[in-house]
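lol ok so funny story. i was supposed to be doing the assay writeup but got distracted and ended up predicting the structure for this chain instead. priorities right. anyway since i did it might as well share w the group, maybe its usefull for someone
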Amino acid sequence: MTTSTVRGKFRWTVAVPPLALLLLVATWANHEHWAVLVAIALTLVGAVMASVHHAEVVAHKVGEPFGSLILAVAVTVIEVGLIVMLMVSGGDGASTYARDTVFAALMITLNGIVGISLLVGATKHHLVSFNASGTGAALATVITLAGMTLVLPSFTESGHVREFSTSQLAFAAVVSLVLYVVFVFTQTVRHRDFFVPVSSDEFGRVTGLLDLDGDDHADPPTSTETWTSVGLLLVALVSVIGLAKLLSPTIESGVSSLGLPYTVVGVVIALVVLAPETISAVRNASRDRVQNSLNLGYGSAMASIGLTIPTIAVAMVWLDGGLELGLLPMQMVLLALTMMVSVLTVGQGRAKPLHGVVHLTLLAAFVFVSMVP
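and the output, tada:
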């Protein structure tokens, strides 16, 4: 991202966050009219896009792999806010919103973001290369987190069906947070070189590091632009969470009126939140920076569990009702397929368009069976 690109986007991204906050305040007490709901939905999308843009500005200032980390955390904050708001609003599916949204985020990041990045990058450059050591460590962490928090609850005996007991939930939350923190330390301090783009020969074999500072030789934003983006990012995040709270009854009623399962609500949330991040990953892949794309995909999957589960665990102190985290059998099959394919993809350190198509096929299967279980 060049400085001119940052300044070119600066006008609308500066205007949208405060406008979203104003709309939130103005419609908080009365937002039932369809025109108001349309305005809220459009502003919500704009605020999500603006928040991710400002995260990218800050990320560009600090370089890789810090950039991907900041973007992943920003997106996860939005996701956690939406989940908590939907759970607070109640409804028949409130106890499964966290599971369905986190699982949807996993499928979209591991198959959608990774798949389309590999497809775009490999189609344009024939072969794409990445550091299998760093990406493999990220995938191993994601697999462990998913197994501990989404699979294990379906087999424990202390709690209700597919639910952790209080002590088990506390243990899972602590383990999730510890794993995430240790990975972040590994990514940003101890083994940072494993997570930056690599150079390769015509056969896709890694030959060294590429653009170690992560800025693609573009001028970074100024300090003023960076701090402005930090402030606007915070405003955008608050606005997104609040507007999603106002829109949540409409999302639920829309899904119900179409005769779709409640799990579709989680899919909708994850698609909205991760759409801008997907765009960022595709841009990196088209510039032959697939390592950055994979950092975004696996980093977001990891943050979706490592940050969401501890937050939800704390929120359950005040929230009524249960928390069903255990996956259904169909979801476990999709998760197992995704993990096996991901291991085969990452293990080679290079990928062809076929790898991207395989991942996108798994994403299509997930979306389809979510609507037609």
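Residues 24 and 243 are 6 Å apart (CA to CA). Strands lie at 128-129, 198-200, 206-209, 350-351.
back to the writeup now i swear
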